[in-house]
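Give me the fold.
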Amino acid sequence: MLSRRISARRRASGVVLIFALIVLVIMTLAAIALTRSVSTSNTIAGNLAFQQAATTSADAGVEAAVTWLNNNNAQTTSTATATVCPTGTPVPETTVLACDQYKGSAGSSYGYIAHRQDPGSGQSWMDFWNINLSQFAVKLPADAAGNTVSYVVQRLCSAAGDAASTSIQCSSTPPLPGGGGGTGCQQSGSSCSAGSQGLNIVASQVYYRITVQVAGPRNTQSLIQTIVAI
């Protein structure tokens, strides 16, 4: 009788040991999974931080492009950044922004294209940048975060040349009407017709697309686009 009790106790102890080992294995696997999850979360958070920093750095490229546009708006081909438009293009009194500014005389890039270019069917903007735009881009010095910013400006016109030419189609803002109740005043009784001082007619402005590419740490790449009217 005593031997039977001892045998039953041994069997019970063996079962408890097996369950304890199973629980230990499960806890070990759970700890490993939790460690990997935390590590993955930290990596994702770090990548998002680098991506956000790259997006923020793109502002420098936009500002540099807008500054170039303002400095070269209405400038003639006698300026240092001007090149001659393609032969046969009817451009009376050619301005800098009417011509493609691929490369300067010293080989530096001006990053300006006077006609619109878009990705082909099934092509991403990043692929289009790498294949078509990167060779003309203006590259800025790396910033404190290690991001390198490059930009290209495209005038949203069908071809290079004078934006006022009827043979060239450009995306532009509509001209604002004049005021003072005269020609161009569209609504009577509004500020357009109030008072003796009329509003001046503002000429239409051409749209320009600024594409900024940022390359940063951990192979971070960001592509930002801005539309401006000048």
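The mean pLDDT is 74.
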